[in-house]
Amino acid sequence: LGKAVLVWNEQYSLYKPLKNHLGKLSINESFYVIWAYSNHLQFGNSFPSDIETIPEFINAKSLPEKKIYQWELELLLREIIINSQDTERGLKTLRKWNYFTGAINKIKDIENELISVNKNNVLKEFFRLAHRQFPWQLNINLMYFYRYYRIFNETDIDKILYNKVGVHYENLFLMGTSLLGHFQKNFIIKEPFSTNIKGITNDEVKKLFDMISIELDDFKKIIQKEYTVDEKFAYNTYILRLYPIIKNKFKGDNAYFCPLTTLLYWRFTSGIYYEICREKDFDNPFGHAFQKYVGDVLNKANKKMTIYPEEYYGSKKNKKNTVDWILDKKDAALFIECKTKRLIVPAKIELNNTELLDKELEKISDAIAQVYKTIKDHIDKQYPSFPYDEKRKIYPIILTLEEWYSFPDPISQEINKKVKEKFNQNGLPLKWLEEMPYSICGIHEFEEIVQIMQTVGIKKFMESKFSTPEYASWDLGPFVNSFYKEERKSAIFLFQKEFDDMLSARGCPVINH
Fold first, then answer.
1. The model's pTM
2. Alpha carbon of 505 to those of 68, 181, 293: distances in Å?
């Protein structure tokens, strides 16, 4: 008990300066300031004249040069909800640059003190940072929008969603994009709601808000219940992503605030997954929807290669599947296996307990080994429509819907270790890992990479990665940024016309890339 009291006293002493700093603020006004910073960083919006900044921040040419990051705003938002006053005006204000940066710096001080990094967890900490920071560095883009629209709008998935929330995904998507457009220019929305989108009812609008918004007092209770001041201090923000819109009184009226527009964007796209992932018979339709989308990407990008879809082979008693997709250029082929499996949240944020992460890495290594098992059947000439050619180079790709950020050395090395164990268990030659090196790639990167391959070829692209030790262990995305930076600039949004047609059919404005 004495030790627990000591730990609490140390934590409170560390946390008290931030608590006191934010306790002098108005919650609603602070929402407004965070909204202004968020939209400036995400959309390049001009700053409101009533918020003080400095020229070095406003005139910085890149986001890193601004030295204020959206993941810091997310943490600041959580702390404001916990500590600030539910009043129209506070004793202090984040509108003042020094008070705003003072809050950010106090949060950083807590982070730095709480994280105990040593030789055993230093690269695990990098893995945590990647999952915390990298998603914020991807700007809102149409590929991401359309990808989730296509996947969740598949009939079987949409049916599960409708049974759960009472709204079809297309309508959720259109309402979400409409709200995103509103909050790009306004930091609140008031009741009653209205929409000009064809075919959407007021009842559906209400259901959307029931799903993605929460009363401020309820929000506080949930956050405080799960709150900890320890090595996970900077990572317990899941509840903000579940409810990006906060309901509170504003000048006597009911108002809905969206301080971080990026969270709203994630909620009605990738965040729909958490709404339905535990529903009966979800996994298979979800996997098939992603596999189908990948096929559409390949066909849309393809100019001079051959695409082979998944096929069955083997006897009736031992029926097997080929890989999900093969992209062939005669001298080299991609063997693509699509995976919707996501890293569970605890595996992303635990620093010292690696058991959960180990289980997740076991699953991805299983998927990698499975691809090589089916490649063995291909070499044994069991594939029905794609004959084996010993002169053709084969490059397996585990294509994930969500990024795994598996490139930190201890993570990639652990995956490789597990893959080798499974090779030994299944009698597969270890030399294949050198002759046919695998890649783990997120669909976000792949949609551009497959376009680059149309220009440079599969073999040249993959050899330029694996023949250079510096790049061999990198994820494909960072590799492309370094090696094929110019070619990447030519990559386009593959489904612009389809997206525009869908929006115009429902009376929505066309969104340009």
1. 0.92
2. 40, 18, 22
